[in-house]
Amino acid sequence: MLRRTFTCAALTLAVAGGAQAQSPAANYPNKPIRLIVPFPPGGGTDILARLIATRLGDQNQWSIVADNKSGAGGTIGITEAVKAAPTGHELVIGQKDNLVIGPWLYKNLPWEPTRDLVPVAHLAYTPVLIATSASSKFKTLADVVAAARAAPGRISYGSPGNGTSIHLSAELFEKAAGIQFVHIPYKGSTPALMDALAGNVDLLVSSVPSAMSQIKSGKLRPLAVTSAKRSSSLPEVPTIAESGYKGFDVSTWYGVLAPAGTPEPIVARLNADINKLLANPEVREAIQAQGAEPEAMTQARFAQLLKSDYAKWKGIVEASGAKLD
């Protein structure tokens, strides 16, 4: 009798232990999920975040709320995510600017992306665009390069701000082409776009979504995109690589991350569910309509992208001399 009692008790503990081990993913989520958006409402990151939150909520019958926490180039929202409880109910949508460039620009950030965050799922990428007013004399990127070589330091471009991935992408192109532009930083994409349309700057360097409406209206002439492949939103616009600078490839990417310590089964489930969402043709079309390219990745591949870009952009930021307080 004693042996049987012991055996039954051991079996009960084993079953209970197995249920407990499965509980992080099996019971997830047990309350609404908050998706922190580190930028203001209405921008490209916000639009993508709300699209993912709505569609993933519908797909899984979950309650997901997008919550804007903007400031300091997106690093304030990341800071809040790092401090959140690692239960999978607090997520953040990050991108190259705030995850791999911001830490090298802002002093004394209380986090390091590869240590304090878990990459969950890559969402999409978007190239940087070089464009000019439709009334400009520049018809191609080659025209711009020829003018810059003929008059070094005379051709100007507007960007959404000093130290952004867009600004640094332009600097990388200057080095690749052996030319020198005059950089005019603005407080966001809209004022830079307006000055480019007015001819107050020769060029606009921007994300594709920020410029799309003016391109469609015929007021802005796209000259090149910085990604390795052409943008599906602008298939007629050549890449910089196609324009004579082989191997040039700079894009801004977006992804979902969680605080370090979030249980691996939950991370794995979120990765699988978001990748399933990105395979939905309607979702892909909605992302492409914003000028971005949907791209699913395994969790390991996304983690490697974050790690490699974080190391790569340290040198780029240091070489640019850009610093922010």
UniProtKB/TrEMBL annotation:
<comment type="similarity">
    <text>Belongs to the UPF0065 (bug) family.</text>
</comment>
<feature type="signal peptide">
    <location>
        <begin position="1"/>
        <end position="21"/>
    </location>
</feature>
<dbReference type="Pfam" id="PF03401">
    <property type="entry name" value="TctC"/>
</dbReference>
<dbReference type="InterPro" id="IPR005064">
    <property type="entry name" value="BUG"/>
</dbReference>
<dbReference type="InterPro" id="IPR042100">
    <property type="entry name" value="Bug_dom1"/>
</dbReference>
<protein>
    <submittedName>
        <fullName>LacI family transcriptional regulator</fullName>
    </submittedName>
</protein>
<keyword id="KW-0732">Signal</keyword>
